[in-house]
From TrEMBL:
Organism expressing this protein natively: Allomeiothermus silvanus (strain ATCC 700542 / DSM 9946 / NBRC 106475 / NCIMB 13440 / VI-R2)
InterPro entries: TTHA1013/TTHA0281-like
Superkingdom of the organism of origin: Bacteria
UniProt name for this protein: 2-oxoisovalerate dehydrogenase, E1 component beta subunit
Amino acid sequence: MELIFEVRDAEGGFAARAIGEESIATHGQTWEELKANVLEAVRNYFGPGMTPRTVQLHYVRDELVLI
């Protein structure tokens, strides 16, 4: 099983929310802090022996382009 997080820019860093498991969300000021917080959130949500084998961080950036 793979769990995918949608990552977006947030005030002061990054915010991540699991796709399909909306109750798993976290944030971090740096990319490294975000990764550590995502892993901790996944472990806490699923518990021992139930965690997904991989976690993917999908970074989404919204940008408006004027025409």
